[in-house]
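Why do we care about 3D structure at all? Because function follows from shape, and shape follows, mostly, from sequence. That is the central idea of this module. The next example makes it concrete: a single protein chain, its amino acid sequence, and then its structure expressed as tokens.
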Amino acid sequence: QVHLVESGGGLVQAGGSLRLSCAASGNIFSINTMAWYRQAPGNQRELVARITRDGITDYADFVKGRFTISRDNFKNTVYLQMGSLKPEDTAVYFCQIVTIQTFWGQGTQVTVSS
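And the structure:
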């Protein structure tokens, strides 16, 4: 069994920063891709950023230049450093890891006030 524990969400003013963390534990042999998705009310879940085991990153256009994804393979943890936050970044943020299966975190709320 695999558990993902997310932390770091909260309320921040526009222009501010937050750092999300997601730690994976349990029966993990090798994590391939780690990613962050988000879902705002009434919207579909969308990819924010992802990172391969080798550190290759991919970002959604709406966060390029503002967010940075990173990972610690020894700690099985993925991070999302979010800067220059906008009210439209308000959403529940979910981490995802891909091994031979795909696992999701429970989500953490990020609210950006104008």
